[in-house]
Write a structure and sequence with these properties.
By secondary structure, the protein is α/β, with parallel strands linked by helices. The protein has three domains: 124 residues, Response regulator (Rossmann fold, 3-Layer(aba) Sandwich), CATH 3.40.50; 164 residues, Rossmann fold; 75 residues, no CATH class. The chain contains 20 helices and 16 strands. A five-stranded parallel beta sheet has the order 2-1-3-4-5, sandwiched between helices. The chain has a five-stranded parallel beta sheet with strand order 9-10-13-8-14. Helix 6 crosses helix 7 and helix 19 crosses helix 20. Bound molecules: adenosine-5'-triphosphate and magnesium ion. The site of adenosine-5'-triphosphate (ATP) has 16 residues, from strand 7, helix 7 and helix 15.
Amino acid sequence: MTRKDPATPCPILIVEDDPAILELLEEELQEAGHATLGAASAEEAIATLSHTPVALVISDVRLPGMSGLALLEQLRAENSALGFIVITAFGTIDQAVEALKLGADDFLTKPLDLETVREAVYRVLEHRRLAERFRQNGPPGHFHGIIGESEPMQALFHDAARLAKSDAPILVLGESGTGKELLARAIHAESPRAENPFVAVNCASIPAELMESEFFGHVKGAFTGASDHRQGLFQSARGGSLFLDEIGEMLPGLQAKLLRALQEKTVRPVGGEREEPVDVRIIAATHRDLEQEIEAGQFRSDLFYRLETFSLRIPPLREREGDLERLIAALIDKHADAQEKPIESIEPAALQALLAYGYPGNVRELENAIMRAVTLADSGEIRHADLPERLREQAEASRRESGEALSDNLATGLSTQAATQASIQAWPRLEEVEDRYIRKVLEATGGNKRRTADILGIARRTLYRRLDDS
Ligand SMILES: Nc1ncnc2c1ncn2[C@@H]1O[C@H](COP(=O)(O)OP(=O)(O)OP(=O)(O)O)[C@@H](O)[C@H]1O
Ligand SMILES: [Mg+2]
């Protein structure tokens, strides 16, 4: 999944009285995909802000008239949540400290290093965006707490809501950690049975010899140790829903009894003489391929077809374009709340890694990573170093890969859609692109250095040096 470009539709306002620096900053940020506005003084900036929405202000401290710090102070006094980066002169640490005290998000020191500028802008915009997310209570597009604005999740919610109204059994399919149990609970909550019990049972956790009595109950004296009449899970869920998790683990003998319960709407307790009516809605789930289980003789096909009539497949996280960011913000919020820890920010590298990772374990894996980082956070910040190692490593690898793919495209003169959409952060250094291009031409000339130098329009000496260096 590619990282969303941090550029916002609102422009960045740069307040700088030196026209050369203003131009340089505007150019740099425009190249990074941002819209910019310039102001030569704080007064001009205030005038602009009165009529134009802005994402972020970058202001020099020393300005003619009102200072950059006074501008910051005024904006914060007006309760503005605008991002604000201060540019201080070299060697004026007191100014930087003052700026941060007044509520600046960051400061940059002159002479400006453009890469640092880009990074600071990215970081501040990203922080602001997350903060905005945090403020939103219950993000839009969720279904009983299941977050998902992506197209496949919206379609799933739509189907789930429709099925919830009926009494038909439902089979929930999906890879591990995709939210199968969450969906089962949501269906129950959406159904007319919402006021009655929701009983969840993991079929894998019940010992084979106890399964039948656990499900259907038993009568007194049914077997050694059955000293009393006992209700089963079916009876406990009466009027409500019974969630059979890991249905693929259910023993074939019991599968036949379950099918019977579904068809006749009655169950017979172990040792009992009579069938008892039960009004229960069954929601079953599995991460297994049941058709394969049927072939292997582990699952009854008649039960499968009965359950499969209404099945809902939860897409893996990697197919939910756009949901990852929202999930990250919501899960940080959830665990910050649960642990009563104020989390105010996230390191850009941490966010990048979280966005770049592939999540074979889906939302559960994401949630575990976030829970861990929240637990380890001691300064109100989610840190890159606190993320699981495999997540950091894979993110780094995919960052490198997308950089290489991009430079390949540039080197062959093919600027594909994919290349332009690749994350700006992952773009390689110019030198790296040149090196790749040089190597490509060298390859194409069969290693002929003179021709390569001619094609590249550089001196042979330069070519030798570049080949030595790279
Ligand atoms: N879309 C979502 N929005 C918010 N939280 C989610 C979402 N999907 C899953 N979760 C959270 O992720 C965790 C795993 O979800 P759940 O237990 O429902 O998955 P599962 O598919 O049953 O997993 P497994 O196959 O491992 O049993 C839970 O803590 C759940 O709250
Ligand atoms: Mg589960």
